[in-house]
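testing teh design pipeline on a random one, pls ignore if ur not involved
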């Protein structure tokens, strides 16, 4: 089903889709400065979940940021160095870690402490001494909520056919990367890619074959990307877009030619194309070297114009 299909893929920041090892248990990061507490929790939760441990707040932050990320963090409050509140605040500040549910498990009994924990964004606050069945049930419920939230996020940001990010996701990432490029004063490139004579392809081979073809092209494009920050999305119909942060005109044209090469190698038969006997694409390529002097919408428009130019110049080519 569609939901299973989405659930089995994880999206990395760059938009790369990877299948998690299967069957996959949830991973819970337990943070406590006292090993004896960790031991106790291992007995309560170890059968049902994969557990990882951190004995300091600093270590917890590091582990929460690293791949694969934990599905939930169960954390003590009183620790030397960074305390649990501080760790939680840091996690919520960071885009990469803000969606990991945090549950406090603490001997702090004060109402104001509990309020503080919840206000910092923790999903739950459990007091010690704890009851094993209650903590098991609470953790299970929070993991279920997290799963549903991830599922919804995938459904709203991934294209259902090709399983790569959709236009909506591109719009978000584009704004983010634009802001970053402005701050870091680095160049930003875009490739606008359109399949040549795709209407003919559908007419000759059927719509189902057309769908398979779109999936194949998406895979080729995805595997052509060189850096984690490179971002591919399905822009619409048979159009794709690639966002290349910190990439010069040279790098961007190089990638465009690699894509044309890869499709030539793949050689998807297309007998009703005026260009070749295999499926080709036309590409518009733009680079903005000084973001402060560029306009976000205009850059996209420019890429679209260059794509049109590539079509006009005979297709299966790149215009910059
Ligand atoms: P050009 O070389 O000028 O780009 O010609 P084209 O035929 O590729 O362009 P046109 O815009 O005329 O047709 C695009 C076609 O893409 C028509 C549409 O049916 C097809 N298409 C768009 N989305 C999908 C899809 O999800 N699946 C399939 N099978 N076809 C699609
Ligand atoms: Mg402690
Ligand atoms: Mg088109
Ligand atoms: Mg087309």
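output:
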């Amino acid at each position: 089903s569609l939901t299973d299909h989405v659930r089995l893929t994880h999206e990395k920041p760059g938009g790369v889709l990877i299948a998690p090892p299967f069957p996959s248990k949830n991973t819970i990061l337990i943070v406590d400065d006292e090993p004896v507490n960790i031991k106790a929790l291992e007995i309560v939760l170890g059968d049902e979940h994969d557990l990882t441990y951190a004995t300091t707040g600093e270590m917890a932050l590091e582990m929460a940021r690293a791949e694969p990320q934990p599905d939930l963090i169960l954390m003590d409050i009183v620790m030397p160095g960074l305390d649990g509140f501080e760790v939680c605040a840091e996690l919520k500040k960071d885009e990469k870690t803000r969606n990991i549910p945090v549950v406090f498990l603490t001997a702090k009994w004060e109402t104001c402490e509990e309020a503080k924990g919840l206000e910092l964004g923790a999903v739950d606050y459990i007091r010690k001494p704890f009851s094993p069945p209650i903590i098991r049930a609470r953790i299970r419920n929070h993991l279920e909520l997290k799963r549903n939230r991830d599922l919804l996020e995938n459904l709203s940001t991934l294209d259902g056919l090709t399983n790569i990010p959709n236009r909506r996701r591109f719009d978000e990432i584009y704004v983010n990367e634009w802001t970053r490029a402005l701050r870091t004063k680095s160049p930003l490139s875009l490739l606008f890619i359109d399949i040549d004579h795709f209407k003919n392809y559908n007419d000759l081979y059927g719509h189902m074959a057309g769908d398979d073809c779109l999936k194949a092209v998406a895979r080729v494009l995805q595997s052509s990307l060189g850096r984690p920050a490179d971002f591919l999305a399905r822009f619409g119909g048979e159009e794709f877009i690639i966002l290349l942060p910190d990439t010069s005109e040279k790098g961007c044209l190089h990638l465009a030619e690699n894509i044309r090469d890869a499709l030539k190698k793949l050689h998807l038969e297309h007998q009703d194309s005026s260009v070749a006997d295999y499926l080709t694409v036309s590409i518009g390529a733009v680079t903005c070297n000084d973001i402060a002097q560029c306009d976000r919408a205009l850059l996209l428009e420019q890429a679209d114009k260059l794509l049109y130019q590539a079509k006009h110049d005979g297709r299966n080519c790149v215009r910059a």
